[in-house]
Amino acid sequence: MIDIKNVNFAYEKSDSSKNCLKNINLTIEKGEFVVLCGKSGCGKTSITRLINGLIPHFHEGILTGEVTVNGNNICNSSLSQISRLVGSVFQNPRSQFFNVDTTSELAFGCENLAMPVNDIIERVSKSTEVFKLHNLINRSIFELSGGEKQRIACASVYATLPEVFLLDEPSSNLDSVSIENLKDVLKILKDMGKTIIISEHRLYYLRDLANRFIYMENGSIYGEYSRKEMSELCSEDLAKKGLRTLNLNHISKKACENKAQNINFNFEKVICRRGKKDVLNISKLQIPKGEIVGIIGKNGAGKSTFVSCFSGVLKHKGKIFFDGKECKGKSRLLRSYMVMQDVNHQLFCESVKEELELNVTEDRKVNISKILEEMNLQKYKDVHPLSLSGGEKQRVAIGSAICSGKELLFYDEPTSGLDFTGMNITCSMIKQANEKALLSMVITHDLEFLLRCCTSVLHIEDGVVKEYYSLEEAASIAKVKKYFILKEEI
């Protein structure tokens, strides 16, 4: 079905070996389920770009070797021809949207293939049913959360029913329920005999589906593992390879120091509206100073809205107090720094080093070289941030947060696109930044990260605080595990 023979590739104007594929030989049979895994920047996404034709038709560079999909040489086939065979879901779903509403987006691929109207309506209806999108139909794309956008992107590709499904980090912005839904859909596609290739860091939900795991390092294939062989790798072996856990039940809580404080942030009748609807309604909430708060909840629950209100970005009714004194929105805004879910929105400079220096004021001294070293970014200090992998960009944005010296630090899905090594680095840097901050708040769907980094949990559903609790007790750890682990894992 897919043959990659003796392929080498270097992106145009790139002299960095991290952007190269080296001597890639890979055959994927029809109906096979293959997972590409490895550290951020190892070449996984570049492999997917070979298969869907974005290399060389969109991403130009020096390509040698041969890539064929169902007997068609990708160099001699147009992107429109390849797209009839290969459906792609990108790491950032925004980059593949062409419409402003969800229903039109679901129909877009079918319309491009000139399907009859009745067939299009049937495909959209089927995709809505399979991906459980009834509450997202006829919605503005701009109103959706990152996870909701990811679900729309997956469903729009499903509607065209290509022979090959290519997904790049499809779970990166999904909550636990949506990941289970995605897993169910992937199983359906596998049972239909579709060929599935996934580039992914979260491996636990794929361990029972994948036929093979392709492990990559520095642009090369370093190993191939069957499902059984992969399951036999111990936690230490996975960590050495920069791979995430295969079983959420194997995650243990890492010790985090809580700052013993009698100083609190208090929220009273904080309400945020979109149109006539309350999207956030917090009657009362108290959070101690010095915490690293993991904010959990389903996609669209109001987590980002809460953070935007707290940081002063969004206007709201009600009051927020610190140490008994009201803290106005403008004051909070000046004291806040937010690492966005899509970090492309906050990378402005020509080099990584300049990006970190951007947020350093004249009255502060920051050891930029030390931060670059600690975040494993030293070798990229002169590289343009937007040329980095998704996980590397994420680390640059977090480095900027540390350099800012702000007192209120907010992180929206900071481990999206991060391998095990990158996740551990992020944990360490968030803890380090929190030592000089008043409070850190982290929106996350990542149990492994939450138990390594956070000191407490804020659970938000439907714009309302469901619960706030410390992670010091075994019962609390069991509670948060139960929330994330929807089905019993062996």
Task: Describe the model.
The chain has 490 residues and is α/β, with parallel strands linked by helices. The protein folds into 2 domains: 2-246, Rossmann fold, CATH 3.40.50; 264-484, P-loop containing nucleotide triphosphate hydrolases (Rossmann fold, 3-Layer(aba) Sandwich), CATH 3.40.50.300. Helix content is 33%, strand content 26%. The chain is built from 17 helices and 20 strands. The protein has helices at 44-51, 54-57, 79-85, 102-112, 117-130, 146-160, 176-191, 227-231, 235-240, 303-310, 329-334, 352-357, 368-374, 390-404, 420-434, 447-453, 474-484, and strands spanning 2-11, 20-28, 33-38, 61-69, 72-73, 86-89, 164-168, 195-199, 212-217, 220-226, 264-274, 277-288, 292-296, 317-322, 325-326, 336-339, 408-412, 439-443, 456-461, 464-470. It has a 6-stranded mixed β-sheet, with helices on both faces. Strands 16-17-18-13-19-20 form a 6-stranded mixed β-sheet, sandwiched between helices. Strands 2-1-4-5 form a 4-stranded antiparallel β-sheet, with helices on one face. The longest helix is centred in the middle third of the chain and has 16 residues, at 176-191. It is globular. The chain starts with a strand and ends in a 6-residue tail after the last helix. The mean pLDDT is 89.
Throw out a few tags for this protein.
20 strands, six-stranded mixed β-sheet, 17 helices, Rossmann fold, 490 residues
Provide a compact summary of the structure.
The protein has helices at about 45-50, 55, 80-85, 100-110, 115-130, 145-160, 175-190, 225-230, 235-240, 305-310, 330-335, 350-355, 370-375, 390-405, 420-435, 445-455, 475-485, and strands at about 1-10, 20-30, 35-40, 60-70, 70-75, 85-90, 165-170, 195-200, 210-215, 220-225, 265-275, 275-290, 290-295, 315-320, 325, 335-340, 410, 440-445, 455-460, 465-470.
